[in-house]
Amino acid sequence: MTLALLFPGQGSQAVGMGAQLADAFPAARDVFAEVDEALGQKLSVLMREGPEDQLTLTENAQPALMAVSMAAIRALKVEFGFDVTTAAYVAGHSLGEYSALAAAGAISLSDTARLLKLRGQAMQRAVPVGQGAMASLIGPKTDLALAEAAAAAGAEVGVCVVANDNNAGNIVISGEKAAVDRAIEKAKELGARAIPLNVSAPFHCPLMQPAADEMAAALAAATILAPAVPVVANVLARPESDPEVIRRLLVEQVTGRVRWRESMEWMATEGGATRFVEIGSGKVLTGMAKRIAPEAESLPLNTPEELEAFAKSL
Fold this sequence. Notes:
Blueprint: E1 3-7, H1 19-24, H2 26-39, H3 43-49, H4 52-55, H5 58-80, E2 89-92, H6 96-103, H7 109-126, E3 132-138, H8 144-154, E4 160-167, E5 170-176, H9 177-189, E6 193-196, H10 209-221, E7 231-233, E8 238-240, H11 243-255, H12 260-268, E9 275-279, H13 284-292, E10 297-301, H14 304-313
């Protein structure tokens, strides 16, 4: 069995996330306390009690999702003796790449929390609310070629690119609102369904360059070590372990495409992964894994029972 650990991205947040882990495991509570201290805010209370509109803010959702993933990793280690090097690869969707790096020991928990708080704030600042948009193109006809054609139509009136290549049948475009609206029309003509996303900014497109510049400065000052497990990077869809390359890729990731489908395909084929485990809030990546690599086992780990069952299965 070749194991790959997956870490979820924005959209997987929910009020109450992490509460079961905190109630069951002192190690999980320690993670939430450490993140609260690093940020100087009671993020753990917001995660447990809401309100949802505050938790959904990018600057809160990003460190919160990472905290839940790291609480699960810490609990697995302390309670069940799980070593992250049991995995052949780690990978995370957008902000989840930071969770993957933290899990692999490349960035400290406190630094990861602070970087993600800044990342969320910087992304929010980069484009005034209402000027950007994102849309999900879905349906059996939706593939990368269709999404690229729709984005090209949008690009005739403004910035519009493919932001997330999640899996066949689920691709996200991002850019200026008028351009995304045009791309939606084109996608429908080509046979896809298009759903505007309720997001506060157009992520993973060139409009995020001011945020990339902010992250470049912050990451230049951050300590990044070689990860204990290779991290499959969003912008490469290949594993990387060199700290300086990782630093550069995290900057590129802000404006670049999340090549999730290719990352998963690489792990399942060339990487030989036969078991994908999603660590943290929600089951979004588990669903994607089942569509991209149906022959592999895919399961979510976000409750004490799931953690214990997983540990016993090893």
